[in-house]
């Protein structure tokens, strides 16, 4: 069981790192230098939904890990 808990914690750390990187990328692409590029708008609009999905995944994974203990 200890190995499974460590794997779940590593997975949650990975989710937290990806969320932090998405926040940084979201702020960087909204800079004035990227104002006229079309893909920036779609990417900026998609980032909150990706973050929400990752948060749901993290909560579900933590609850499942907590339930198995």
Provide a brief overview of the structure:
The chain has 69 residues and is mainly alpha-helical. The protein contains two helices and no strands. The protein has one domain (2-68).
Description:
The radius of gyration is 16 Å and the shape is elongated. The protein has 2 helices and no strands. 86% of the residues lie in helices and 0% in strands. It has one domain (2-68). 0% of the residues are buried. It has 69 residues and is mainly α. It has helices at 2-29, 38-68.
Features:
mainly alpha, 86% helix, single chain, Asparaginyl-tRNA synthetase, elongated
Mean pLDDT: 88
Structural class: mainly alpha
Percentage of residues in helical conformation: over 70%
Give the count of structural domains: 1
pLDDT < 50 stretches: none
Task: Characterize the largest beta sheet: strand count, sense, and whether it forms a barrel.
Answer: none
Got a strand count? 0
The radius of gyration computed from the alpha-carbon positions, rounded to a whole number of angstroms, is 16 Å
Distance between the ends? 8 Å
Order of helices and strands: HH
| Shape estimate | elongated
Number of helices: 2
Percent of sequence in beta strands: under 5%
Keywords: Membrane, Transmembrane, Transmembrane helix
Organism: Vibrio ouci
Protein name: Asparaginyl-tRNA synthetase
Transmembrane segments: 12-30, 42-63
